[in-house]
Amino acid sequence: MTSILICTFRNLPSTSENSYLLYSCRTLSVPPSCDSDYHSLQATQTKSKKTLAKPNIRNIVVVDGVRIPFLHSGTSYKDLMPHDLARAALTGLLHRTSVPKEVVDHLVFGTVIQEVKTSNIAKEAALGAGFSEKIPAHTVSMACISSNQAMTTGVGLIASGQCDVVVAGGVELMSDIPIRHSRKMRKMMLDLNKAKTMGQRLALISKFRLNFLAPELPAVAEFSTGETMGHSADRMAAAFAVSRLEQDEYALRSHSLAKKAQDEGLLSDVVPFKVPGKDTVTKDNGVRPSSLEQMAKLKPAFIKPYGTVTAANSSFLTDGASAVLIMAEEKALAMGYKPKAYMRDFLYVSQDPKDQLLLGPAYATPKVLEKAGLTMNDIDAFEFHEAFASQILSNFKAMDSDWFAQNYMGRKTKVGLPPLEKFNTWGGSLSLGHPFGATGCRLVMTAANRLQRNGGQYGLVAACAAGGQGHAMIVEAYPK
């Protein structure tokens, strides 16, 4: 597929895919001021839009959501455990919403790299935050869309009538990942534990070799292909003819918009976290607008020396946690809450993890719009996960290509491009950070908060994930 895409996209005329990206990327380094300019326009446009409520189906709402600051791994959270971060997010949610703990029917948390000591981290975090031991809690894992899965699991529990109130969230602590003994060493230790006589123990010990002590490090790579995600992002950039400059400009846009949102107090989902033995953390520490000149000095991170993916245009290893309060609408209103948004149609997709690893948004977006009966023009706020700048720009090109739609998606026409003035206008994973298990909740809450602030009605959340998977969801602003 890669060679086909390279030939096809490089030979396209300078319209559609190429012209939009060339134009938009040349202006990415200047943060658009349209976030405020769109207020009155969006309010006017959305008055006549239909609601996505369905007859005889429960309306499910997100009441509110929070996250502790997302930090570079190896910084303020490095001495903690994952459940400490998850507990902090749950505590922040309790303070933000004042929801009585006893009304919560179920807790679901997403995580990717499991801490062995707290395998069901949802339960441990819930107990630590003071929830009753009688409340069920379980943990899900779906790579970078783990908290997306946690939220939609909650939606399913409420839609089926099993629950009225669910807390969903996600957590990742990249500062401390489990490192195992080698398989040979593990086997020897297990056999020694079973040995009953000194002779059996000595016989086992005699088989010991120094190479047994070599540790097994977790690989940030696809098990099925052995390829790292960064390597896939580099190949994707080549396949879709996304230049190094375009990637750097998009990354600079993300950091610039995130800094603007931080300074203006727009990231209201962030709650302070007093780190035990350290200072209180109040904001994400990965937001660092630079310059194209400085970014250009960095060497390729994965495919050397000719790759285009660098540390500056990739998301960084991040520690963090998030949590949202999801309710049946009638329950929320009965308790006196004013929800942020309805959680509407959603779906998951999966493609070839070798050549289409990061194209989840391109596949999921047209499907979820079709399911909801909407078009790209109906969406007022786009919130896509930014794994790499090359990933975002490649998805843009795929979404704006009739050829790609026809040959890879079985669709007659392209879905089209999300307008940049509506796209990740408060920054994204490239700048805010990406704790694997926690990003999905951030995306949903940012979309909901943007809709509330700007007067829009529909938001579209989308993300890619390892295994070639992807997720998309429509959120609808709750009427004021």
From TrEMBL:
What's a single GO MF annotation on this record?
acetyl-CoA C-acetyltransferase activity
Principal EC category: transferase
Instruction: State the EC number(s).
Output: 2.3.1.155, 2.3.1.16
A Pfam family annotated for this UniProt entry: Thiolase_N
The yes or no answer to whether the keyword Lyase is present is no
Q: Does the keyword Acyltransferase apply?
A: yes
Q: Name one GO cellular component term.
A: mitochondrial fatty acid beta-oxidation multienzyme complex
- Report the principal subcellular site: endoplasmic reticulum
SUPFAM superfamilies per the UniProt record, alphabetical: Thiolase-like
GO biological processes: cellular response to lipopolysaccharide; fatty acid beta-oxidation; gene expression
Subcellular localization is given as: Endoplasmic reticulum; Mitochondrion inner membrane; Mitochondrion outer membrane
Which reaction does this chain catalyze?
Answer: tetradecanoyl-CoA + acetyl-CoA = 3-oxohexadecanoyl-CoA + CoA; an acyl-CoA + acetyl-CoA = a 3-oxoacyl-CoA + CoA; dodecanoyl-CoA + acetyl-CoA = 3-oxotetradecanoyl-CoA + CoA; hexanoyl-CoA + acetyl-CoA = 3-oxooctanoyl-CoA + CoA
* Thiolase N-terminal domain boundaries: 60-330
Give the matching PROSITE patterns. THIOLASE_1, THIOLASE_2, THIOLASE_3
Q: Which residues form the Thiolase C-terminal domain?
A: 337-476
Kindly state which keywords UniProt assigns to this record, in alphabetical order.
Answer: Acetylation, Acyltransferase, Endoplasmic reticulum, Fatty acid metabolism, Lipid metabolism, Membrane, Mitochondrion, Mitochondrion inner membrane, Mitochondrion outer membrane, Transferase, Transit peptide
Pathway recorded for this protein: Lipid metabolism; fatty acid beta-oxidation
Task performed by this protein: Mitochondrial trifunctional enzyme catalyzes the last three of the four reactions of the mitochondrial beta-oxidation pathway. The mitochondrial beta-oxidation pathway is the major energy-producing process in tissues and is performed through four consecutive reactions breaking down fatty acids into acetyl-CoA. Among the enzymes involved in this pathway, the trifunctional enzyme exhibits specificity for long-chain fatty acids.
Similarity remark:
Belongs to the thiolase-like superfamily. Thiolase family.
Q: Subunit details for this protein?
A: Heterotetramer of 2 alpha/HADHA and 2 beta/HADHB subunits; forms the mitochondrial trifunctional enzyme. Also purified as higher order heterooligomers including a 4 alpha/HADHA and 4 beta/HADHB heterooligomer which physiological significance remains unclear. The mitochondrial trifunctional enzyme interacts with MTLN. Interacts with RSAD2/viperin.
Protein name as annotated: Trifunctional enzyme subunit beta, mitochondrial
Organism source for this protein? Loxodonta africana
